[in-house]
Amino acid sequence: MTTITGVLLIFGALIFSRPLTTLVHELGHALPALMFTKREVIIYIGSYGNIQKSWHLKLGRLYCIFTPQLFDLQMGLCQHASSKKLWQSILIVLGGPVFSL
Predict the structure, then answer these.
(1) SS3 per-residue string spanning the chain
(2) Which long-range contacts (CB under 8 A, 24 or more apart) does 84-90 make?
(3) Quick one: which of 3, 34, 33 has its CA closest to 93?
(4) What is the per-residue pLDDT across 26-72, written as a single tens digit (0 to 9) for each?
(5) What percent of the chain has pLDDT over 70?
């Protein structure tokens, strides 16, 4: 395997694994939000709040909206109701990066 082929394979793997890593990150925000709030939680994968040309999946209070866009820099979003306490909001915000690890 040549160096250029290896670089192209790594680049391709990064591009196609990005939706999966975005899903894991947004679930890191969504799971604490589901625990600390009583309202629905919506995660957008592949778009930043745009629902056109997307697939919808409902799992209880969790709504997942998938849009097939691989090269969009704003890949994900988690919308939820505000929590009652500051420490709950901190856990929701930190859930994404911690879950990504």
Answers:
(1) CCHHHHHHHHHHHHHHHHHHHHHHHHHHHHHHHHHHCCCCEEEEECCCCCCCCCEEEEECCEEEEECCCCCCCCCEEEECCCCCCHHHHHHHHHHHHHHHC
(2) 84/36, 85/36, 88/32, 88/36
(3) 33
(4) 999 999 999 999 999 999 988 777 777 888 999 999 999 988 776 66
(5) 94
Query: Which amino acid makes up residue 62?
Result: L
Query: What does the pLDDT read at residue 70?
Result: 65
Residue 88 corresponds to which tokens in the numbers above?
Answer: 């709950």
Which residue type occupies 31? L
Place of tokens 């894991």: 24
